[in-house]
Amino acid sequence: MTAEIIDGKAFAADIRARVAEQVAQLKAGHGITPGLAVVLVGEDPASQVYVKSKGRKTVEVGMESFEHRLPEETTEADLLALVAKLNADPAVHGILVQLPLPKHMNSDAVINAIDPAKDVDGFHVSNVGLLGTGQKAMVPCTPLGCLMMLRAQLGDLSGKEAVVIGRSNIVGKPMAHLLLGDSCTVSIAHSRTRDLANVVRRADIVVAAVGRPGMVTGDWIKPGATVIDVGINRIDAGEGKTRLVGDVEFDSASEVAGAITPVPGGVGPMTIACLLANTLTACCRANG
Ligand code: GUN
Known about the structure:
alpha/beta; globular; Rossmann fold; binds guanine; six-stranded parallel β-sheet; three-stranded parallel β-sheet; 10 helices; 11 strands; 2 domains
């Protein structure tokens, strides 16, 4: 079998186009421009790339982008003061504090200082609790993008066996809640899971989010399964070059799977598209 490639880049472009249409309507009809504030502390190179890309895409859909770049040595108190200012600013509908934060900061305290209604990452404990209890929440962008691709690919997910590899707060745990919400039978596997290959082998849906290049190989995949690869790992490609690979060994897995997301061009673009969709949602809720 050769898997169908799930084109996250095209899917994300479609979502952004729909967001842009609604932003244009909000502006023309109500004089409201959705605004997204992104806060980056420090010089982490990967975070800098993400933040730049977020800012560009925000402007492309017609929203206002507020970028705050703070030095590594910023105190937690200063960061909390900025968050309070953004919470109070009516032009800011969404707030994203890029993670990871420098080690001297308490990330939980910072995230939980964000107004839950502006928490477009869906990381605030209120939103985590709402999602966990099946209530209307701001949903974390990466798992939301994965769910949208799975629904588009498979239709009704009810009764499917899903295995999420990775138990992070950003991807693994919210992904499991979303799949449960769609009535999948969900397992969360992680570094202590025994016989991971056999756990993955029973899955109709595999979501890999562990950050280990090529860990999931084709012989772990049930024939015909849908594989969503959240991993973005930069590896040495020789001659001083690097390349991006996922957590799934694409060549072997795509011979067995029914459908698979590539890296790059799969989950990555969907994350930013969902961030913009969440910002639009936050803006609409703020304005009744
Ligand atoms: N760092 C890596 N992924 C994310 C994300 O989705 N949101 C934030 N705020 N930081 C991240």
